[in-house]
């Protein structure tokens, strides 16, 4: 069943807390609390980067306020995927306003948070609900994975992981 046909459901109180914290990251409002449900060894994967470790993930999201004037959540539905009971899947529509040129972009993504004992171990963001490519996708997938890991390392070296300094 594709995510576009999955039914939605209401989140549990624990899931709502995790969702609110993750949404604060997408809304360019990172704080220590925003990262409280990420495991130290968590991985973040989107079409731009593959960040390994909580500190690297923090740098990725802490860099967003440098690029965007603001980011508004237009929709966030919890998808009811009975085939992955330990995953929290979201259908997220986020509206971004860039600082440079005031250009705007609305993006719909499928967010998958793989949880273990209430901690996020893997955070996957698929733009337009299209799967991310990686080394399992042949030669070009391998090149793309290398580029994403390099991108994450550059961001990690140039953006603080301390949200109080954003």
Report what the structure shows.
The protein has 166 residues and is α+β, with helices and mostly antiparallel strands. The protein has a single domain (8-158), classed as Nuclear Transport Factor 2, Chain: A (Roll). It has helices at residues 13-26, 54-62, 64-67, 138-158; strands at residues 8-9, 38-45, 50-52, 68-79, 87-98, 104-116, 119-127. A 7-stranded mixed sheet has the order 1-4-5-6-7-2-3. A hairpin with a 5-residue loop joins β5 and β6 (104-116). α2 (54-62) packs across α4 (138-158). It is globular. This is SnoaL-like domain-containing protein. It comes from Taphrina deformans (strain PYCC 5710 / ATCC 11124 / CBS 356.35 / IMI 108563 / JCM 9778 / NBRC 8474) (Peach leaf curl fungus). InterPro entries: NTF2-like_dom_sf (IPR032710).
Would you tell me the overall average pLDDT?
93
Radius of gyration: 15 Å
SSE string: EHEEHHEEEEH
Q: How many helices?
A: 4
Largest sheet: 7 strands, mixed
Q: Which strand order spans the largest sheet, edge to edge or round the barrel? A: 1-4-5-6-7-2-3
Percent of residues in beta strands: 35-45%
In which range does the helix fraction lie?
25-40%
Name of the level-1 CATH class: Alpha Beta
Protein name: SnoaL-like domain-containing protein
Tell me the layout of helices and strands:
Blueprint lengths: L7 E2 L3 H14 L11 E8 L4 E3 L1 H9 L1 H4 E12 L7 E12 L5 E13 L2 E9 L10 H21 L8
Parallel strand pairs: 2-7
Antiparallel strand pairs: 1-4, 2-3, 4-5, 5-6, 6-7
Helix pairs in contact: 2-4
Organism: Taphrina deformans (strain PYCC 5710 / ATCC 11124 / CBS 356.35 / IMI 108563 / JCM 9778 / NBRC 8474)
Protein name: SnoaL-like domain-containing protein
